Amino acid sequence: MSWTELVLSASAMQGDQPAVSDVRTGEALSYSAFARRVTHAAAGLRRHGLRYGDRVIINAPLGAGFAVAVHSVAWSGGVAVLNPSGTAPMMITQRGYDPLTTDVRQVFSFEPTPGALPFAELIGDRTVEFGPLAGPALSADGERVYDHDELATDLRALATRLVIGKDDVVLAAVSDPLKGLRVLDLAMMNGAHVVVANGPSLIGCRVLAHERKATLVIAPYELARRLLGDPTLRVVDERAVISSLAR
């Protein structure tokens, strides 16, 4: 089972249950909606010329759209690059990009951007039913490339150390793209609801945890340390979700 296939594996069972909520944008996707966007956007990328192994720069904040973008690239057979600069045939951005540091032929944007096509145009009637079984899939820095086998194996290993169930609500108070992506992957692989909070303060994190009825918070060390002691929450240092990918 490939990395993205593993992340999407809970979709059939979870269906309309919430998968990922984005505090920044207010967007919330169910498991079925997330899987639909990933597989249809993958077809859109292929329709626009993406070939197996092509790199696609992802320049978007951690959230629902970020996760859809990364996994649609991987499902289409491309390599999602989390470094917002460099050279690649395609780029998916939140809004805008710097042409002095980024050399790309096609740009897709979540927000209106001159010279870019709306990301929504990738999501048409066609779908990619089966993604690649193996091969390159992700690069955090544009240099080291992880393949589907590495990412799936690491995800399974993480799941044995950090137990997350389908009834959990995971508050991802993580800013680093790779760590945040691992949190999203791990939560969705297990059928949980992950709430993405970009860089919240201690008070903001506590408020969100209460409002969203979070059962688990994954946060940077200092924030995690200050959240310890709440009997209703499990708190995990974000460094715990990198595992073998840090080497």
- Give Rg in angstroms: 17 Å
Overall strand count? 13
SSE succession: HHEEHEHEEEEEEHEHEHEHE
Task: State the assembly state of the protein chains.
Answer: single chain
Query: Main sheet, how many strands, which sense, barrel?
Result: 7 strands, mixed
CATH class of the largest domain: Alpha Beta
Mean of the pLDDT scores? Answer: 94
What is the gist of this entry?
By secondary structure, the chain is an alpha/beta fold. It has helices at 3-8, 11-14, 31-47, 64-76, 148-161, 177-189, 202-211, 221-227; strands spanning 18-22, 28-30, 55-59, 79-81, 86-93, 102-109, 117-118, 136-139, 145-147, 169-172, 193-196, 216-219, 234-237.
Description:
Strand 3, helix 4 (64-76) and strand 4 form a beta-alpha-beta unit. This protein has helices spanning 3-8, 11-14, 31-47, 64-76, 148-161, 177-189, 202-211, 221-227; strands at residues 18-22, 28-30, 55-59, 79-81, 86-93, 102-109, 117-118, 136-139, 145-147, 169-172, 193-196, 216-219, 234-237. With 247 residues, the protein is α/β, with parallel strands linked by helices. The longest helix has 17 residues, at 31-47. Helices cover 34% and strands 23% of the residues. The strands form two sheets. The protein has a seven-stranded mixed β-sheet with strand order 7-6-5-3-4-8-9. It folds into two domains: 32-146, Rossmann fold (3-Layer(aba) Sandwich); 149-246, Rossmann fold. The two termini are 23 Å apart. The model has no long low-confidence stretch (mean pLDDT 94). Helix 3 crosses helix 4 (64-76). The chain is built from eight helices and 13 strands.
